[in-house]
Structure formats: structure tokens, C-alpha cells
Specification:
Elements: H1 12-34, E1 40-44, E2 50-52, E3 54-58, E4 61-77, E5 82-87, E6 93-95, E7 100-105, H2 107-167, H3 173-231, E8 233-235, E9 240-245, E10 252-253, E11 258-275, E12 287-292, E13 295-309, E14 312-319, E15 332-338, E16 343-349, H4 353-357, E17 361-365, E18 371-376, E19 378-382, E20 386-391, E21 398-400, E22 412-416
Parallel strand pairs: 1-22
Antiparallel strand pairs: 2-21, 3-16, 4-11, 4-15, 5-7, 5-10, 6-9, 7-8, 9-11, 11-14, 12-13, 12-15, 13-14, 16-20, 17-18, 17-21, 18-22, 19-20
Helix pairs in contact: 2-3
């Protein structure tokens, strides 16, 4: 007996077709939802620099440029104006303290000395005249007093005799009173003469004292002017090298004008120009170092000049220990100047990437070493070798630190051998 065979609603072929179609749709949908559409760029590893983030000691310092100058420089300025009469030495000559360098001629100063000498002689004569007059007055008074004393002594005897005679009524009252008045007059005259002499002597002493003081001032003033004459001959104040001498014979020099300088060449220091941005962080006793002839030499700041010119200020640095052998005046030194103490920090090597990113992001290589992704970071202080990492990186992370200029704005770099 025959059976009716019912046709299957989902044959195997149909199931396979539906399953394949569903899988394809899911694949496309998953690719749409979860696929990586970020921009990528293939880069050869040999053309990039990969640096590892490390933790270690960090010393912040800045590169500065200094110029070697003598340890001591003395400038020669004209203390008096005048015309150059003669030049004894030339620039570049080694000098000793006290050596004559040049001589100026100043006729006005010479005439001034002559006038002052004449005034001094006149004042000296006035003083002598006053002293002579005082002595004459003293002798005259002595003579007057001698005469008065003689007359008083004589009149006293007459007066005493008159008192005896008036008691015996041998002379008249009028005659007695005349003798008495004469005696009293002579006594008063001697008193007035003594008082006059005393006051006159006091006045003469004050006058002499004032003349002596005036004479001393004039003498001191004359000495100063004569000393200015000595300043017309310029001498070396220290031993060293006359590195500069500007005037020529016959040239007029003004007072205070710079005419040259002497350098003491038994030692050197370095004059360093620093950007004004760091002026608040630069102080005396800060250290620096530079390389010379294959060796590293230490320097220390000894003087800070606070004046800012054209956006820069200067400091003087001296060598710690021995100076470099063969260093010369005017040489340029590239110095690494410390700005803070040594401390522990997360460090990333410097590189060309900073010019494009400003330290705000970087390409970080993943664990496979074949892909580098853009990651936001934050960098802090820096020195010529490394950056201080503040955020976005950990110790051991590998970062591409070479230039990003050719990468555009891609998010990932595929690293190829």
C-alpha cells in the first residue's frame, strides 16, 4: 500500500542558504558596529625612533651660552679733560702696576693752580700782617700800662700825703679833691685800657683763627688741584695686559671718557646671557657644566646682574677647581645650567615629536610591537636629554619620539619591518 510522502518545509539546502545569509549579514553588521575605521599609516621601523619610558633621577637644567672673559678687568677712564700729549704704550702690551700709559695736557688746570697759589700767598700775607698788628698792639699796651702804672704810683704817694695834710688843715679842700680825682682817674683809665686790650686781643685771636682755617682750606684745595695734575698722567692700576687703548696723540679727551682697559690674565670666568624667563629661578651658588677638550668642567654662579637688556640678563660664573688648559679669552662655552635639585621622576627621551604635539599626545607602541596608537599625555619640566612625564604614560611604555611631521592626523601607525 502506497504512503503519501509529505514535502519538508525546511529542506537542508534552504537551511544552509538561510544560515549563510544570516551569518553574512551579522558579519557585515558587526563590522559596521565594531569594526576599526580609524586612519592608519604604514611606517617602517628603521625610519623611526622608539624610546622607553623609565623612572630615574631628573635634573632640570637649561642650555646657555657663555663667553670666557678675564677674572678681573679694570677700565681706564680720564679723571680730567685734556689733549693727548703723548702715548707711552700700545694696546696688547703687558704692563705692571704704576707703568705710565699716556699723558694729557690741560692749560686750564695749570692756570687754575697758579691762581690758587696766588690767593694762597695773599691769604698767608694777611695772616702774617694780622699777627704783626696784634703783636704791635700788645707792645703798645704794655707801654701804656707801664706809663699808667708809673703815674698811678706817683699819684698815689701824692694822694696819701694829701690825706695827711688835709687832716692837719695844711692844704685846702679843693686842692685835696683835685689830687684825689687825679688818682681815681688814673685807676679808671688803667681799667679801661686793660678791658680794651682784652677785647682787642680776643677779636684778633678770632680773626687769626679764621684766617688760619681759610688758609688750611685753600692749601687743601690747592693740593687737590695739584693732585688733578697728577691725574693727567694715566698709569696702570694693576698688572696685566693692556687689551684696549683708544686715544691718539692730539685727540681731546673729556672727563670720565673711557680710554682703555687692563685685563688680569692669571684667571678666567664666564659671562653668561640667560633668557629673562628664568630670572626668578637664577641665584648665586647655582651650578653648571660644559665640555671642553673631551672633559667636563664645573662652574658656579658668583654674580647675577639684574638688569634686563633685549630680553636677556647676565651672570658671572667661575670655575670650580682647575681651569681648562688652553682656554682663551673670547671663547664660547655651551653650558648646562642647573635650575633645581636632583629628584626622582618618570622620564621620556627628547625627540622631534614635541615640535608637532607640544607634549600633549604621542604614539605609544602596543605589546605586539607592530602597532602604535595615539594617546593623550602631559609633559612637565625638561632638560636637553629628557622630558618629565606627568600623565598618560607608565614606566616601560614604548613611545615613538622621532618627528611626526609626515604622519598627518592618523590615529594609528602600523609598524613594518
Amino acid at each position: 500500500m502506497d504512503r503519501i510522502i509529505q514535502k519538508k518545509k525546511w529542506p537542508l539546502k534552504r537551511i544552509v542558504i538561510v544560515a549563510c545569509s544570516t551569518g553574512f549579514v551579522l558579519l557585515i553588521l558587526g563590522n559596521i558596529l565594531f569594526g576599526d575605521y580609524s586612519a592608519k599609516l604604514n611606517v617602517k621601523k628603521e625610519r623611526i625612533t622608539i624610546s622607553t619610558v623609565t623612572r630615574g633621577p631628573f635634573q632640570e637644567f637649561i642650555p646657555v651660552t657663555g663667553t670666557v672673559i678675564p677674572i678681573k678687568t679694570v677700565y681706564l677712564d680720564a679723571m680730567e679733560h685734556g689733549r693727548v700729549e703723548s702715548v707711552f704704550l700700545e694696546a696688547g702690551t703687558d704692563v705692571k702696576a704704576g707703568d705710565k700709559i699716556l699723558k694729557l695736557e690741560n692749560t686750564d688746570l695749570l692756570l687754575n693752580i697758579l691762581y690758587r697759589e696766588a690767593d694762597l700767598a695773599e691769604q698767608s700775607n694777611n695772616l702774617r700782617s694780622t699777627r704783626l698788628l696784634m703783636e704791635q698792639n700788645r707792645l703798645s699796651l704794655q707801654s701804656q700800662l707801664t706809663e699808667l702804672n708809673f703815674q698811678i704810683k706817683k699819684q698815689k704817694r701824692i694822694y696819701e700825703q694829701a690825706k695827711i695834710l688835709i687832716e692837719k688843715q695844711l692844704i685846702s679842700r679843693q686842692e685835696y679833691e683835685e689830687i684825689r680825682d687825679e688818682y681815681e682817674y688814673l685807676l679808671k683809665k688803667r681799667g679801661l685800657t686793660l678791658e680794651t686790650h682784652e677785647k682787642d686781643s680776643l677779636f684778633r685771636q678770632i680773626q687769626i683763627h679764621n684766617l688760619e682755617r681759610s688758609l688750611e682750606r685753600m692749601q687743601g684745595s690747592l693740593e687737590l688741584v695739584k693732585k688733578n695734575m697728577e691725574h693727567l698722567t694715566i698709569q696702570a692700576p694693576i698688572s696685566g695686559q693692556l687689551t684696549s687703548l683708544i686715544p691718539e696723540v692730539g685727540e681731546s679727551i673729556a672727563r670720565g671718557e673711557r680710554i682703555g682697559q687692563i685685563d688680569q690674565l692669571d684667571g678666567f670666568k664666564v659671562r653668561v646671557a640667560i633668557d629673562e624667563h628664568y630670572i626668578a629661578r637664577i641665584n648665586s651658588e647655582q651650578y653648571g657644566e660644559f665640555d671642553f677638550s673631551g672633559e667636563t668642567f664645573q662652574l658656579i654662579i658668583k654674580k647675577v646682574f639684574p638688569e634686563v637688556l633685549e630680553g636677556r640678563f647676565e651672570v658671572d660664573m667661575e670655575f670650580i677647581g682647575d681651569e681648562p688648559e688652553g682656554i682663551r679669552r673670547g671663547q664660547t662655552c655651551h653650558i648646562r645650567l642647573e635650575l633645581g635639585d636632583l629628584e626622582e621622576a618618570l622620564l621620556l627621551s627628547r625627540g622631534g615629536f614635541y615640535q608637532k604635539t607640544g607634549g600633549q599626545w604621542a604614539y605609544v607602541v602596543d605589546e605586539s610591537g607592530n602597532l602604535a596608537k595615539k594617546r593623550p599625555i602631559r609633559l612637565g619640566r625638561q632638560n636637553p636629554q629628557v622630558f618629565e612625564v606627568l600623565e598618560g604614560l607608565r614606566s616601560g611604555d614604548k613611545v615613538i619620539t622621532s618627528s611626526y611631521d609626515s604622519y598627518g592626523d592618523v590615529d594609528k601607525l602600523v609598524l613594518k619591518e
